[in-house]
Amino acid sequence: MVCYPTYGGSGVIATELGKGLAKLGHQIHFITYKQPPRLNTFQENIFYHEVLMSDYPLFEHAPYDTYLTSKIVDVVKHEQLDILHVHYAVPHATIAYLAKKILLYEGRYVPTVTTLHGTDITLVGKDRSIADVVAFAIEKSDGVTAVSNSLKKDTYAYFGVQKDIEVIYNFIDLERFTKTNKDHFKKAIAPNGEKIMVHTSNFRKVKRVEDCILIFKEVNQRIPSKLILVGDGPERRNLEDLCRELGLCQEIRFLGKQDAIEEILAIGDAFLMPSGKESFGLAALEAMACEVPVISSDVGGISEVNVHGETGFISKVGNVEEMAANTIRLLSDEKLHGDLKRNAFARAQEFDIEKILPQYEAFYNKVLEEAVYDVA
Ligand code: GMT
Question: What CATH number is attached to the domain comprising 83?
C-alpha cells in the first residue's frame, strides 16, 4: 500500500484497508514518508517502510518520487510482493508505473492497482500542467478503482482514458464508529443542553468551512447551539478571523486535529459538509455511522452516501440559507431528527468494511489473473 500519511481520507482508507486485509490473513506492507495516523497498533503481518530522503544542499525539495520508487522496488523485490496498490493518483500512479518498469527490467512483474480518491482527479490531477502524465499513469495501471460513480464519471470526462474503472465505495469500521455515551464531554461543550453541530476536515478551501460558520450563525440565532470544528489546515486562520468578526468565538470551538473522531461525533446532533468538491465524503459516512444526520452540498459523490430527506439534507454548493433552514428544521423537530438519525445509521451499515473488503480481494484476484505481462 502506498498512500499519503496525512489526515486526508485517502490515507485513512488505505490504512484501514491494509489493516482489514491483514486481519483476513494477507501480508501488508505500507510504504510512505511518515507513519500514517491510523497505523498505530502492532499486527504481526503488517509492515511499515519509511521513505527517507537525503537533504543534499542542492535540493530545495528532495525528489520524493525517486526515493519512493526506489523504496518500492526494494520492498517488492525483497518481500516478494504480489501486488502494488497505490492510493491517490498524483504522483503515486506514475511512480507505480516507473517501479513496475524497473522491476520488469530485472525480470519481475508486479501488477499495479490505483485507487482514485478525489482531488487527484477533480482538482490537482486535471490541472493541465500534469494532466497528460496522470492520464497515462491511469491507463497503464493494471487495475483502477474509484471511490464513487461520480468520480469514475469525472475521470472519463477529464482525462478521456479508456481504462475500465471499477467503483469500490469507501467503507467504515462500525465497531469503532458507533454512538457511545459521552455525556461528560457533551456537558463540557454544551453546558445548557445546546444542540451541537460538527464539521471535520483538513480545512482546505475546497471544504468551504466558512459556510459551516455562516450556517451556524443563522441556526444559532434561532436555536441555542454550539459548533465544533475538528481538523486543521491552511484556512484555519481565516476561519478564526471570521468567528471573531461575527462575535461567535464563545459558541464555536476549534479542536484541531483529533484521532478519536468517533467520540466527538457521539455528541453531535448534525454534521455539516458544505464542500465545493467531494468525491465520496468519508467524514459524512463516519458521522452517519454515529447516528448524526448530514447537512451537505450536492457535489460529486456525496449523494451516493447522504440521501436527501432520509439521512440528512442536500443543497446546492454555497446555498448557505437553505442549509441553515434545513438544519433548523432538523434540530427543531424531534420526530424528524429521530427518523434521520436511525436512517443515517442504517445507510452507514451498507458501507460496512466487512462488505467492502471482499470486493477489494476479488478485484486483486481479477487483476492478478488478467495482468498483461508486457507493459509498453
Ligand atoms: O481529495 C481530497 O480532498 C483528499 C482526499 C484525501 O486524500 O484525503 O479526499 C478524497 O478522498 C476521500 C477518501 O476516498 C473522500 O472521502 C473525499 O471525498 C475526497 N475528497 C474530495 O473529493 C475533496
Answer: 3.40.50.2000
- Quick check: is 161 in a domain? yes
Q: Is the dihedral of CA 138, 143, 146, 151 positive or negative?
A: positive
167 and 18 inside one domain: yes
Using left for φ > 0, alpha for ψ between -120 and 50, and beta otherwise, residue 123 falls in: alpha
When the pLDDT of each residue in the chain is averaged and rounded to a whole number, the result is: 96
Q: Is the CB of 121 under 6 A from ligand 1?
A: no
Looking from the CA of residue 283, the nearest atom of ligand 1 is 16
Distance in Å, CA 298 to ligand 1 centroid: 15
For ligand 1, what atom is nearest to the CA of residue 277?
23
**Grid cell in block for residue 238:** 481565516
AA identity, residue 159? F
Question: Do 329 and 274 sit in the same domain of this protein?
Answer: yes
- Structural domain including 260 reads 183-349
For 243-299, the pLDDT digits (tens) are: 999 999 999 999 999 989 999 999 999 999 999 999 999 999 999 999 999 999 999
Q: Is residue 176 part of a domain?
A: no
pTM, rounded to two decimals: 0.94
Take atom 21 of ligand 1 and give the residue whose Cα is closest. 278
